[in-house]
């Protein structure tokens, strides 16, 4: 493993890392001056729109654009006949293990309701919309498959010509360790269940948007709201037949992505092509409905989980089959299937596991990458079944989870040993801080003041990796420059989704260099300028790019000290640097500022220094245990999440407020997944039923519980800067099973699916009455 | 036919000529050139476009520009008194980490401003209710509540 640079001098106490400094991108966000892609304008701008199919599975037998083209103000119309016929990955990890090469920019076949079939560029949005209506399309409809079962039925219509067949996106992922049959034979009892997950969407607040402009040298400048600017560059260049230095991708502020904005979307290719054809800048902006229809959801899933337990609570065998519904295209299904399936080897220790993961095409909108990447589903099932085992054993569920918690030296899903005892630390801390035992054993479920309310308490656990290793061998890069006045510029390709990543990177640089946080500025979001970056995903920016930035800053520190040594006429080793001041360690009064060191003095001209850092990590795992209290209204079926105590181990916290913000936002999405959010598709014809923010119900200000976030530095990982690990995805994983388990604690009903709706609650209560 | 209208945007008289079907949101972002106000849905569901018109917070995507003729319109760009004097709310949002991606932030700031103007000392429930039309998908709202509570306290101690 490529270990980060170890600083020469012994580590002083941290001065910047661990502080909630003012984020370096937040002033523009509160003044409205921050530029998001849709805020950028170009003279002569045209507006692009996409015509979407109103059938789910069909051949296009005729498409006539003549009337649209004749409309005043329409500058171009593209159909499958006009665009390069190029099979692409639909996602920006070309040639990696994560994605599937199964999409054309436009095809003569439609595979889901709402798929783009033509694109228009016009002088106004209204004209573009009108032109869409003037495009005439005849379809030869094909029978569709709208769920996992019909897609896998013998003789089911095939959605793709590529792939292993039988509507599978990839050959099944199989993982086997130990001897499962033997394990089950040793079990005192076996639990078996079928679990199902709905179709939540990321619902980032900024709808997808991009703008393309070509210059006279046939170079494309492309603004887009993406997590993976360099991958967008690569994919566009490939399709357009351009060298990489003829595609410049720009992204400044972006309004969230949550994983989904690492796909390369159909409109992005079309925008570039429309701009090339018209020789004018073109902007394409999704409507909110399009963010559902043409965006990316979490994979709906079905999981068959069977585990054998001994009387002492040991898990002696685990057999799991997980089927992810990919929708009409593969997108991230290979990655999601691999990561989600492998996740089930771990979290709770078990030596004998047999796992199988599949991803299945259906004629529904595309599932892609989304915070929690296949693991949300797997651990929902695993954690709930642990709760059931505890009930069966008459044990406290937190105790059973603690007993089986993955720990130091166990083999992680990635195949390398776990570092530290992070999950145990989270559970132990929460059991005490949440007053778990007293709540579960001493508090009545009934609340005399509210006769319809039943209270319950639950705990859910998770672990999640930083970096996409072993699926992708990642590389993090950073360039750090020391200017002549002692100010520092960090160049990074890491995207700023809104997490505060650039602030964390600047903190790492300032800490390692020995300068103030304020003296570091960050340049990002321009593929012509910043070092190559794989993209912001897999909870890895702090871990991966942070390590690269630390390496670069370490080198720069050495170079600055060498220059100061020349000026001070002393050996470099005698020097130290703190908060931008360089001094002789044994005589702290003798020194100079970084500005003096860099600036001109007699006989020595001013200088600036540039250093780079590159880092190829393996993977670290972060851990969490979420403790929740719910109140279930047995008359209305409503579940109110009242209190959440998320306990997270992040190894080393760089920016406490930003880390807590990630956790709290993840909990918000996770509550939604578990109780209210489901993007519904009509299973008879593939139509979207609730593509809007009123009908797709997310937890809002009135719904959020009291959250008491706890961040531990229990298991620092040597692969991250000062032990830091990721935190972006973790919080969305543990909250779901915690809520489901708490509902069971409140009303005694077990749910094996999400979302758990009021109707489900009332049906379960009615069934209990009958018994 | 395009129509000329005059609005008082952040205290400044602005004349624009707009199509009668053009929303106040598109007019602010387009003709007027103030892109701080965001479009998250364009159908009144998300609150990202919240501005204050004649003292009342509303969704700029649901109002036609021509309806705002003659009105006082406040947007996020007008929040700060001068380039180096931020509004108490802006400062509190930065300190408390209330803006993550920041896309909801301009709308929430305007809603919060209006809330505090009408209720200098809102309870937690009143803050929650006041923001019920503003979607934030990043923060879980906790830090936003913290920021608004802290701004309210500060405004009471030293009124702006
Ligand atoms: S853009 Fe106006 S409410 Fe969403
Ligand atoms: S900060 Fe991203 S939506 Fe609120």
Automatic annotation (TrEMBL), chain A:
Domain Aldehyde oxidase/xanthine dehydrogenase a/b hammerhead: 31-143
InterPro entries per record: Ald_Oxase/Xan_DH_a/b, Ald_Oxase/Xan_DH_a/b_sf, Ald_Oxase/xanthine_DH-like, AldOxase/xan_DH_MoCoBD1, AldOxase/xan_DH_MoCoBD2, AldOxase/xan_DH_Mopterin-bd_sf
Alphabetized SUPFAM superfamilies for the sequence: CO dehydrogenase molybdoprotein N-domain-like, Molybdenum cofactor-binding domain
Pfam family, one: MoCoBD_2
Protein's recorded name: Xanthine dehydrogenase family protein molybdopterin-binding subunit
Originating organism: Acidiphilium iwatense
TrEMBL record, chain B:
InterPro entries: 2Fe-2S-bd, 2Fe-2S-bd_dom_sf, 2Fe-2S_ferredoxin-like_sf, 2Fe-2S_ferredoxin-type, 2Fe2S_fd_BS, Beta-grasp_dom_sf, Diverse_Oxidoreductases
Keywords from the named record: 2Fe-2S, Iron, Iron-sulfur, Metal-binding, Oxidoreductase
Native organism: Acidiphilium iwatense
UniProt keyword Plastid, yes or no: no
Protein name: (2Fe-2S)-binding protein
Residue span, 2Fe-2S ferredoxin-type domain: 3-79
Top-level lineage group: Bacteria
UniProt cross-references to PROSITE patterns, sorted A to Z: 2FE2S_FER_1, 2FE2S_FER_2
